[in-house]
Each structure stands twice: as C-alpha cells, then as structure tokens.
Amino acid sequence: MQYIGQVDRSLLRDRALSSIREAIVVGDLAPGEAIRDVDLAERLGLSRTPVREALARLTDEGLVESKPHSYTRVTPLNGDAVRDAHAVVQAMHALAARLAVPRLGAAELAAMRAANSDFEAAIARGDVGAALAADDEFHGVAVRASGNFAVVATIERYTPLVRRLERLRFASPVGCHSVAMHEEIVAACAEGDAELAGRLVERNWATLGDLLGESG
C-alpha cells in the first residue's frame, strides 16, 4: 500500500476550481446566480473546504462576488470586474497584434486564415464551442508571435471573465460579422501594417463591449 496515501488538499481545491470556473464560463452557473458551497460540494463529491478555497480564488479572479453574511454569487455580466477585464483583454490583444506583425511569416498568416475558416464553419453550423476554439486560435497566433510574456500572462489571466460575453456573441446572428473582421486583420498583417492591425483587433474586441451595454 506504499503508493496509496492521503490526497493532497491542493489537488482537491484545484479540481473544484477548474470545475466551478468551467461551469461559470459555459453558463451552467448563470450570471448573478447564487452559490452555496454545500450544494457545490455535493455536486462535485468533495468536502466544503476545497470548494470554499476554490470560491475564494474565483472571487480574486472576478468570476464570483460575495458580501459577508449576505450572498455569494456569480459575477453579473454587467459588473465592474467584467468591464475592467474586457478593457484589459482588448488592449492586450491589440498590443499583441502590433508587436507580432513584424514577426509574422507565411506560416503564421496561413494559420490565421485556416483558423478563420474553421471559425466561419463553426458559426454557420451553430457550434459555439468550436467557434470559440477557432477564435482563440486565430488571435492566439499573434499573441504567441508577440514574444511578450506579460501580454500572454495578462490575456490568460483575464480571458475567463470575458468568455461569457464571447459565448453570447458567437451564439447570436452578429457572430458571423467577426469573419470579415478577421479577414481585414489578416490583410493588415500581410501588408506589414502593425498600427492598422492593432486598430482592427481593438475594433474586433470592442464588439464584446457592445454586449456589456446591452446586459447593463
């Protein structure tokens, strides 16, 4: 029995954190929905301690908000945390594009075009999950090529907060508008116009801000 020992509590917390974060991002836990640690613990098959630790982390991330002796709930889509995260993610993607353009070669441009084709197909068949994955890959080309670890880390840190907005956009008829926006971004990158590429990326991400206004 030497290989069987007590499970590290941090592993249980990380399991709870991953599961609850995903439930919030995909909408299983809706914006503004009240959260009870005892209910989540039962659903996850865990004790309340790792669930409470996970909720504390999600509060730090801005996906959960609480008021002592009053409530713990999923952050509403029109909350300040979501607005702030959107502004940061938008700015970081625009910066990534400006930094990446001089570094982009034929392979990277081809990857962006392929991702946009996948995105268009996913939108056409109403597959929001696949559209998100393709959109991530499209923008990820520039993010990776930017060579700036702080940009990469900041985007990874705050993207979960705006993911719910992306799901709303790609599930709506206006989601297809991003296809043409992506094509313009690729064209600017191919021409080596870093400033134009940055502005176009910023405009693309600004469409999520429109959803913030609608949900307010």
From TrEMBL:
Presence of keyword Transcription: yes
GO molecular function: DNA binding; DNA-binding transcription factor activity
Sorted UniProt keywords: DNA-binding, Transcription, Transcription regulation
Start and end residues of each HTH gntR-type domain: 10-77
Protein name per Swiss-Prot or TrEMBL: GntR family transcriptional regulator
